[in-house]
Specification:
- The protein has 314 residues and is of the alpha/beta class.
- 39% of the residues lie in helices and 21% in strands.
- The chain is built from 11 helices and 13 strands.
- Strands 10-9-8-13-11-12 form a 6-stranded mixed sheet, with helices on both faces. A 4-stranded parallel sheet has the order 2-1-6-7, sandwiched between helices. A 3-stranded antiparallel sheet has the order 4-3-5, covered by helices on one side.
- Helix 9 packs parallel to helix 10.
- The termini are far apart.
Length: 314
Amino acid sequence: MPVICQIMCDSTCDLSAERARELGVRVIPFHYVEAGKPDGGLSGDDDLFQTRSAHEFYDAIRRGACPMTSQPSQLEYDEAFQAAYDTGVPTVMLCISSGISGGYQGAMASLERLKEAHPDEEVRIYAVDSLVASTALNLLLEGACKRRDEGMNAEDLVRWVEDARYHVRTIFMVDNLDALHRGGRLPKGVAVIGDALDVKALLHFNLDGSLGIRGVARGRRKGMRKMCDHFERNRELEPHGRVAAVGDADALEDGYELAGTLRSFDPELEVLRSAIGPTIGSHVGPGMVSVCFWGADRRGEKQLGKVKGVRVAR
């Protein structure tokens, strides 16, 4: 059966390298660097934990590493889109939320150059702002691949993603508020007091792709319970099916416990498991856990407060 559509994504989708190969998804890497270190420090490509494991990455942060992140260069986008164009197969790229990164704008700038280079041809390559990232993008990407394999063409897939992204429900918990402070998300005093009181922030994605505060919990156990309660109250089985996603930042036991709890609500539920990649992990720190699932259209709901100044990569 001929391929009628191919899919690309940036590395904030948190796929494993093996899963990316299984799905036939080309992944464009973000990058991270720890400036000022003679040996380069904690630096590299977000290559889906092929160069260093999730534990090695997050353990370095526990020991004091503070990597900064950057989106793919324009050359990297240009080469990826040119390669897709040369195949002659229409292509859809899912990008990290424009609410926390400039990756989507970078992809669009590259596509404009490709179109200018072929003024007399229809360039059927599309970049879509997912308005999510990490575990939520993982869930959306898996759904897009399923529709592609069912025969959906590129243009219909773009329309599907542009609607489905508003049905993705996300709730995630960071273990240490100091990670949010370092990224400019919280005043130092708030982070210190929050950590002293063992307060865990529960966050989600707003409609514009920025981060919002869903709530707080006193202690990690209570936070995980609230995440599972949120799933039970807000999930919908149709039209996306019995599937959810759970991610963790080197917190495997908590990730598997969350997945088990979700399945206790629905034994037929498929739970996708993933490791939070270096790009997002550089900003949330070790211990983050997330639960993402399909629910009702969020466009009809009142939005909660935004977390100001959140940008993961420019």
